[in-house]
Amino acid sequence: MKRTFFLVLVVINTAFFSCIPYKDTVYLQNKSQATDSIQKIVEQQKPYRVQINDILNIRIKVTDQDNVQIFNPIGIGNLNASGAERAYFDGFTVDLHGNIRIPELGDMNVLGYTATEIETLITDKLLADQFKETANIFVTVKLTGLRYTTYGEIGSGMQTIYQERVNIFEAIANAGDITDVGNKKDVLIIRQYPEGQKIHHIDLTHVNVMNSPYYYIQPNDMIYVKPLKQKSWGTGTNVLQNIGAVATVLSLITTTILVFQRI
């Protein structure tokens, strides 16, 4: 009787203490007094500055559009390409020196510039070398999608979203969400800077994550989701799964003991 009672206690303790707590699975919990975060978020949205290996989509329009065909090489790289591949062939890649090469205009250094600043650079260059102000030059510069990488307890691989701004939840949803054994409290964002890479930590279970300067991801970010310790234990994610796992183990142990007693 005592042995049975002891085994029941083991099953109950294992079931409750090895499962994943509810608070570790829920996003955006109000763990403290909530404050109006709108102003903080607006202040954090600084324009993105171009980095090495970024691909820019540049389009130039003037009154007589035939005069700028050479600047807009649409689809000449690979006519069968589509999506991100088409962007690679049609776009202008920032080289290791921070330059892009534009037909007729030559190399232009754009490293560390915003899209708006690059538009001004190209417009000024065109007015100085190619056109007059009466040509009504209109230049648009955009990144060819926001590319980032996800790995760990989340859908892994290179991801691309064709938006100018993407927050961390949109990025995660696009990759397929975090698994049940993923650590939402300590998600790592590995970000590129001119001086090198830096690792930033964010807690997705806290509502104040929306105030974080890393709430919106940037091109070339890497998002790593660590596993919870429950994964290494090999237990389930809830009480019923844990009871089943423990019951299976106890059944195996009991069967083994009975077999050896009969030998």
How is this structure best described in words?
This protein has a five-stranded mixed sheet. The chain has 263 residues and is of the alpha+beta class. Among the domains are: 2-19 and 235-262, no CATH class; 55-143, wza like fold, CATH 3.30.1950.10. The longest helix has 24 residues, at 239-262. Mean pLDDT is 78; it is low at 4-9 and 34-38. Helix 1 (2-17) packs antiparallel against helix 7 (239-262). It has seven helices and ten strands. 32% of the residues lie in helices and 23% in strands. A hairpin with a 2-residue loop joins strand 8 and strand 9 (196-202).
Q: In terms of topology, how is this protein built?
A:
Layout: H1 2-17, H2 38-44, E1 55-61, H3 83-90, E2 92-93, E3 99-102, E4 106-109, H4 115-129, E5 138-143, E6 146-152, E7 157-161, H5 168-175, E8 182-193, E9 196-202, E10 222-227, H6 229-233, H7 239-262
Parallel strand pairs: 6-10
Antiparallel strand pairs: 1-2, 1-5, 3-4, 6-7, 8-9, 8-10
Helix pairs in contact: 1-7
Domain Polysaccharide export protein N-terminal: 43-141
Transmembrane segments: 239-260
Protein name: Protein involved in gliding motility EpsA
